[in-house]
Design goal:
Layout: E1 6-12, E2 17-18, E3 23-28, E4 40-43, E5 49-50, E6 54-55, H1 62-65, E7 70-77, H2 78-84, E8 94-100, E9 108-115, E10 118-121
Parallel strand pairs: 1-9
Antiparallel strand pairs: 1-2, 1-5, 3-4, 3-7, 4-6, 7-8, 9-10
Length: 125
């Protein structure tokens, strides 16, 4: 299977290790029909990465083939991750909202540097 045009990666900065088994939701916010529902779901692998998404329904198959311009959100459900590690967190989830231009590139990578009391992100490559 080829890699999705939108990928993400979580590093736990308190352990210096990838954050595995974190549930992630991808939402396309520019479409009023799907603005409140995720279009795809995934779980980070042992390397803390999401390379491919599971589509919420077949109507969203465009995300696998061609990106649309507009506003997207990736929600990282961090509470379960920290609970499994027997650690408290101030952030039960992290939402990263980003905008793709009229002629999007072929690939966008969303890294998340995470601790239980803070996080940081940037546009990856």
């Amino acid at each position: 299977m080829s890699v999705s045009p939108i990928t993400c990666h979580i590093l736990d900065t308190t352990t210096g290790r990838p954050a595995a088994n974190v549930t992630c939701e991808l939402t396309y916010l520019s479409d009023s029909k799907s603005s409140s529902k995720p279009i795809a779901l995934a779980t980070t692998n042992n390397d803390g990465r999401v390379k491919n998404w599971n589509l919420s329904n077949e109507n969203e198959s465009w995300i696998l083939n061609e990106l649309r311009s507009g506003i997207y959100k990736v929600r990282f459900n961090t509470l379960d991750y920290f609970t499994k590690m027997n650690r408290e967190t101030f952030f039960p989830y992290v939402d990263i909202v980003f905008q793709l231009p009229e002629s999007p590139d072929n690939h966008y990578h969303i890294p998340l540097l995470l601790s239980n009391y803070g996080y940081s992100t940037y546009r990856g490559s």
